[in-house]
Amino acid sequence: MVQTPARAALRRLPLVTLYLTERCNSRCVTCDYWRHGRIDLTLDALERLLPELQRLQTQVVLISGGEPLLHPQWREMAQRLRTNGQSLWLLTSGLSLAKHARRVGELFDAVTVSLDGTTAATYAAIRGLDAFDKVCEGIRAAADTAVALSVRVTLQRANYQELPAFVELAHRLGAQQVSFLAVDVANPHAFGRSDEFRADVGLRAEDLPVLAALLCQLQREHAQDFERGFIAENPAKLQRLLQYFTAVHGHGSYPPVRCNAPEFSAVVDAQGRVAPCFFIPGPPAPMFSAAALADLNAPAMRALRQDIEDGRRAECTTCVCSMWREPSTLEHLRFRPAGLGAAPRRWQ
User: Fold this and answer.
1) What is the value of pTM for the model shown?
2) What per-residue confidence (pLDDT) applies to 229?
3) What is the Cα–Cα distance from 47 to 150, expressed in whole angstroms?
4) Which fold has domain 15-200+257-347?
């Protein structure tokens, strides 16, 4: 007989990340979705999810993938979610954003574009496509709508020397914010990677002093951008980038991770399977189950959340992306996209 774990059942889920597709039109060196992604979330699976989102009082759905704008029914799905009462946040590579900017601006409250180069050459080296100008066009077009537009940079060896230039580019493109994330080189299965993933993208030991100098330069030359939240992370948090890459080389510990994301959020992939976060898979479950989010309170998922809280998951030790909300606020948490300096206008 299976003993139910002590971990309490989730009654509210303010944030849900929903993958519309496993397919992607980028060719990123840091990700494998484009190599093997084939599956799209079905409209029927979404329809079965809608009552659960209402039951769990979900406020924000982060639409992701793969590249969500590749899904042939992304507009219908976004509209159904809005009608269901959810605010929408789009995470996109931006390759199709110029074409769809007007409709995206109508349906989404916030958009985050992944942009990993400040020049066409750097972009192509990381993303595998000569599409830098097209992505910049899409960012400008989206910024001209009512949507809250931010840029996210995954810092790695090919682009880290452009750190200050990313801030300047984000200003020129009309973004409201730019944020920085270390490329995850410690979790072999992040971002759809297979066991054969071997990309060498992390900073080398000789890069670390250069990164340290760039972080000091950024703090010195962009003090106002830090102060008003245009740069999402404060200077102390950006130092975690240096600490992370230093730890990768065995010269210190990884930055301490404070995260309780599984207590107020979950990930539903394009197969309808539920996970506690981006980096830790959920227990085995059938594809497109009748009530995917009901699995959140199954014994196996509750035990997994307990393992995460108790520090028994190795992925958490080296995590590059964590979220924390004070436990006392979770019962009445009003979620908005982390890092935005101010709530999008439609959420105020």
Assistant:
1) 0.90
2) 95
3) 29
4) TIM Barrel (3.20.20)
